[in-house]
Design brief:
single chain; 306 residues; alpha/beta; Arc Repressor Mutant, subunit A; D-Maltodextrin-Binding Protein, domain 2; 3 domains; 5-stranded mixed beta sheet
């Protein structure tokens, strides 16, 4: 067997977490994938995977070998990209991860134009609010919202969006609009949860000082668009990025409140793994992100493919 192809198969199995799933992506049968893994284990003289009918996990040796193999494959890709330096043609698969709303509204349209300009590329766009492990899942570029924790990832600021507190006219007609952040205690606040938080607080700029208000309501979700739809139905107040509600505000379906006490702006970054030689597909995609979104204030859906 070809050792490089078996290494690629092994790495893909660890990323997908399934022999059959990796085989489907690679165009191989489950038995063919199993034979490659067994051949690789025989060559190395160690077991790489613990396999049962229901689960698949890496052995200690498998973790060490997987990490080195990922680096080898990255180095090989980097070498090929370096040789192709100076050529605008890029090939292969570009794997992107983004938050659901921003991904659907703004990354998907620009990605369509990007792939049209680079026909040698295949795009894979995964959407979720979690923060994936880029190396573990083979992701080339991830879009992340908010301030970034310290990490070994390379981060490029691509845009900034304001946050807005808003509600449907139906809700405001029935309950009135708060005139100060402390008045939120009397309102139904729909909360956007990114994890198992014990409380939910909204932050405001109150004349140059930061004011944090704990809010409560009858709906929580880790998907921001769920809260947007509930707000449109008149359930309560919501705090969301302007890019999600730009058109709703313009059409009057939602109305802003507490405009004298704006929440802090939210940065948007593109992040990728730190590599000696950045693959051309990643470099070009990040450059296109910055070109399309840097300094943007109009977050309407109609302008999503600008």
């Amino acid at each position: 067997m070809d050792k490089l192809s078996t290494i690629r198969t092994f790495v893909r199995v660890t990323q997908v977490g399934s022999l059959a799933g990796a085989g489907e992506e690679l165009g191989l049968s489950r038995s063919a994938v199993t034979k490659q893994i067994m051949w690789l284990e025989d060559q190395l003289g160690v077991r790489l995977l613990n396999r049962t009918t229901r689960s698949l996990s890496l052995t200690e040796a498998g973790v060490i070998y997987r990490d080195r193999c990922v680096q080898i494959l990255d180095d090989l890709e980097d070498a090929e990209a370096e040789l192709a330096e100076g050529s605008t043609a890029v090939k292969g698969t570009l794997q992107i991860h983004a938050p659901p709303a921003f991904g659907m509204l703004h990354i998907a349209p620009m990605l369509a134009h990007f792939l049209e300009a680079h026909p040698g590329l295949v795009g894979r766009l995964a959407l979720s609010d979690r923060q994936p492990d880029l190396a573990e899942e083979g992701i080339d570029v991830a879009i992340r919202l908010g301030n970034l924790p310290d990490s070994s990832l390379v981060a490029h600021h691509i845009a900034t969006t304001s946050l807005v507190i808003c509600a449907a006219p139906r809700y405001l007609d029935a309950h009135g609009a708060p005139d100060h952040p402390t008045a939120l205690a009397a309102h139904n606040c729909l909360t956007w949860r990114h994890g198992p938080l014990e409380r939910q607080a909204w932050t405001f700029d109150a004349g140059g000082s930061e004011l944090e208000i704990t809010v409560r309501g009858t709906l929580e979700s880790n998907i921001a668009d769920v809260l947007r739809m509930a707000a449109l139905e008149g359930l309560g107040l919501v705090i969301l990025p302007v890019y999600m509600v730009f058109d709703d505000l313009a059409a009057g379906r939602l109305r802003p409140v507490l405009e004298a006490y704006p929440p802090p702006d939210m940065p948007i970054h593109a992040v990728y793994l730190n590599r000696r030689h950045l693959p051309g597909k990643v470099r070009l995609f990040v450059e296109d992100l910055k070109r399309r979104f840097s300094g943007r204030t109009d977050w309407s859906r109609q302008q999503a493919d600008a």
